[in-house]
UniProtKB/TrEMBL annotation:
Stored PANTHER family: PHAGE INTEGRASE-RELATED, PROPHAGE INTEGRASE INTD-RELATED
Keyword Chaperone in record: no
Spans annotated as Disordered: 272-292
GO BP terms in the entry: DNA integration; DNA recombination
Start and end residues of each Core-binding (CB) domain: 1-81
Protein name: Site-specific recombinase XerD
Keyword hit for Transit peptide: no
Natural source organism: Paraburkholderia tuberum
Similarity-based family: Belongs to the 'phage' integrase family.
Amino acid sequence: MTLLRQRMLHDMQIRNLAVNTQKTYLLQVASFARHFRRSPEVLGPEEIRAWIIHLTNERKLAPASVQLAVGSLRFLYRITLRRDWSDEDFPLPKRPVKLPVILSFEEVTRFFESIPSLKQRAILMTAYAAGLRVSEVVHLKVTDIDSQRMMIRVCQGKGRKDRYVMLSPRLLEVLRLYWHDAHPREWLFPGSIPGRPISRHAVGDACQLARERSGITKPVTPHSLRHAFATHLLETGADVRRIQLLMGHRSMATTARYLKLATSTVCATTSPFDLLPHPAPTPSQPPAPEYF
């Protein structure tokens, strides 16, 4: 490990960046250095610009992936190397705004009915009932289920933050049925490796199998259930601030995006056109017959 790599790693550890973020940033910077076959210390804004063009035109990376590469370089040069460079030295591609496909209440019901395994059903129902990320679901422990206060404790979620979410009485029934069948000890959903929780890939595979069995044509992932959770809460009248806390969003703007997805609420709004007075037809101009 070079001194620069070690110093960058220490800077990320001091700032308590997630372990996966540390690994990703180091990989991105290493790829940048290998491309130019020089240490990043001797490279500058022109090489950064050329790297972004290479990632976009040659490697055909999506804007989100390019933003990740730029973010790692921004940390290296601004934090570790303390270069006083402006935002213009780290140009970011604009990410297209795409709305996720949302499952209806009926589709969520059909999806759950298509899961044959009690364990898989409990996992995916927990993801929907509490609006959890898949990484949060798989790392739940038995002690995180507080049936006395009807809460679920989410330990070290995204951003390394703890939070509490509601424990649905109906979900509690499912979890109790699952617990009497599987008797998990530490991890609520243990994996095939002793002492380890179930993997995210295993949950994703279970989700894909259930989608195929249900006949739902929409794309369904564990994160789709989280999207459905927030959207269904909005459509049933929940407050946006409360949803922000339940979802663990740092910014209200992130939660506000779900306002675009709550179509049953948004599209049910009365158009101002319907509030205009209806002009009475004049005697010389009788109403036209309706054909449609």
